[in-house]
Amino acid sequence: MNFITSDPLDRNHFPVDEWALVETEFDPDIQGRTETLFSVGNGYLGLRGNVEEARDGYAYGTFINGFHETWTIQHAEEAFGFARVGQTIVNVPDAKIIRLYVDDEPFVLTEADILQYSRRLDFVDGVLVRELEWRTPSGKRVAVRSRRIVSFTDRHLAVTDYEVEMLDADASILISSQILNRQDAIDEYHLGPSAENGVFDPRKAELFHDRVLQPRLKRANGSRYLLGYRTTNSSMTIACGVEHKLITDNDWDQTSSIDDDLAKHVYRVKAKPGVPIRLIKNITYHTSRTVPARELADRCSRTLDRARETPLEEQYQKQRDWLADFWSRSDVEVEGQPSIQQAVRWNLFQLAQATARTDGGGIAAKGVSGSGYGGHYFWDTEIYVLPFLSYTAPVVARNALRFRQAMLEPARTRAAELNQCGALFPWRTINGQESSAYYAASTAQYHIDADIAHALMQYVAATGDDDFLIRGAIDILVETARMWADLGFWRSNGDDNFHIHGVTGPDEYTTVVNDNLYTNVMARANLRSAARAVERLKADEPVAYERLVSRLDLGPDETAEWSHAADKMHIPFDRRTGIHPQDAAFLEKELWDLENTPASKRPLLLHYHPLVIYRFQVLKQADVVLALHLQGDDFTAEQKRSDFEYYEALTTGDSTLSAVVQSIIAAEVGYHDLALKYFLSSLFVDLADLHHNTSDGIHVASTGGVWSALVYGFAGMRDHDGNITFEPRLPENWTRMSFRVTLRGTRVRADVTQQVITLTVESGQSATVSVRGESVYVEAGNPVTVGLGHHGLRLTGTPTTSDIEGTRRADGSVVTASMPTISVNDF
Hints:
Blueprint: E1 20-23, H1 31-37, E2 40-41, E3 45-47, E4 62-72, E5 85-91, E6 98-102, E7 105-106, E8 113-122, E9 128-135, E10 141-150, E11 157-166, E12 171-180, E13 195-196, E14 199-200, E15 213-221, E16 224-231, E17 237-248, E18 251-259, E19 262-271, E20 277-288, H2 293-309, H3 312-330, E21 333-334, H4 338-355, H5 380-392, H6 394-406, H7 408-417, H8 447-463, H9 466-487, E22 489-490, E23 498-499, H10 517-540, H11 542-552, H12 558-567, E24 590-591, H13 610-614, E25 616-617, H14 623-630, H15 637-648, H16 658-669, H17 672-683, H18 700-714, E26 725-726, E27 736-743, E28 746-753, E29 756-763, E30 766-771, E31 774-779, E32 784-787, H19 801-806
Parallel strand pairs: 24-25, 26-30
Antiparallel strand pairs: 1-8, 2-3, 3-4, 4-5, 6-7, 6-12, 8-9, 9-10, 10-11, 11-20, 12-19, 13-14, 15-16, 16-17, 17-20, 18-19, 21-27, 22-23, 27-28, 28-29, 29-32, 30-31
């Protein structure tokens, strides 16, 4: 993996600002990337960072969480149980558009003579602000200022505040505000290319070749416009509405027009120098799976009515107030590292934009910032995003888990289709049905059941929300445990172990294997959690228990069966090498020579046939290492270090999910410099476009992983069995880091330095945690400081494939290699 050893951003172009992402010039060569970086959203509605006047954006985009079209998956060769229904997020009608003409000259940013330019995504105000000065072809100077928000407090509302001012001359100005549906022609509507340089890329959205949105209504009333549609196949409905208000002391008039795919309100202004023209454009979207478009249009009208009655400055203040509360719960401060601090807050802000108003919906891999991965929900939501939510925004975490709970019935259907009891959640979905055609790297990832169960129990332990389990979420535990009990088997040759065969772990470069370590470890935790939860319910809530038995036809011996399977779960371990094989046959494969694989052949999945990759010991992401993190109590310190060193040399980092976990475990086992390297690679993965696909949207799981790398990695927090422990290990050149976690309603701030950790109750009553094995009780008004002493073992270097190959014995065992010293430059 190529590590970052210095600040990867051009600081003339993107100057450091700890509370904003700022751009000082418009560069069309990175337009796709910046359209993503400057997106605004609230978890339900997302507006890409296209400029209002854009005519040649990389990927025009307005996205609604969960609003999708379906299509029939065409398999070259059919087989029973293959996924049948594809789902892809829809690029909905774009209401951002404002065309500007000065003396009939169009303002086109890519062609204009720009004298000054700045764009700022403010993390405190939640506003995207762009300011520029344009010199027209005739030499007149024009100031253009726009502000854009997607409201955190009103789920369905976005606002554009657009201001134009002539600076030195009179001019005739035309402002054309539009809603444009770009789906009336095949060559105009796409969600982004599904291939790059002719090579298929599964990370990109599928193309549509037929009209997706069928017109259902159009209404115009003064400066208010409403358009309504229904998707062709999924039958989802959407209505989009806008309303305008022009504020100016210049003379002006207006005209309007509307048709199926274009609503346009045009202002003609006789502009005087120094007399601004301000257009306020309120925008709303409502969607549904069942409600007709006309009713959604009525909802849009009510949203616009509220917006019209609310002064714009009050809308901005609501945005600031919401974010003030968000940062009070979620901020992570890194003292003396301004570049890192800016990037940390950008990542955390993206988590807010991807999750805040999902309100019972899912959290997509790209949030609402782009079309990448087709707008699908994956297992990484539970593993990488839910920890952040459970400890900083438990209401949002609960909603995300309720979304999985609502998918339980189709998960039961899917399990039955695959000849399994219980429930099997889809690896990739929007509507609850499996949407991935390549089963080896999708359906076979049964571990998603355990990932969801893990997130559920983590949430319950963090919040104390046992009522959530009692009211039905426990059904998830029962049905996933049933699936594992049915999928696994007992060998009859005297091997008294429970085995799970024919599955794929998180590492998609190794598929359909036996006894995948990650799967078995997580399944064991799933089985135990289910058995304990049911037995606790039986003892503490007998009425709820009887309802559970009746509802799920729970047998009297099922919990004992789950516990027995968990206790006897086969956990692969090779005594000769002292490591846990990723699966039963992993160590039998040839090593891939990563050191001599050219960068032009990365990521491997775009340059090698799967069968080539599957024959080697090579990882897309850290599979075993993720298990070391999530179920760390199941491994010794020596095992963790040996496993980390072995798999470190084999992991490509082709997945953005990998580096954060490698950072966490590197910090734990003593590779502190390496932990920082991995952290920085995660921190800037989108900001610096390290995986060359930021244009498709934010890697939301990676942004959640950044929080985990800080809190679980450098602060050393662990929450096994609901017990909160800290083992801080700050990078050597960091002086202080502080963060907050909410523990059963009590928000605790942790301030970590090289010498001490100070715990302070900011809201609530008290909490009990452990610091380096010492129990610490902290209560409101009485901060507690604990000395940290030394960091313990500090290792240097990075294992390489040549290290492993060079020390492989004839019997196949491996001697731990010595490693070269490396360092990380200060930012």
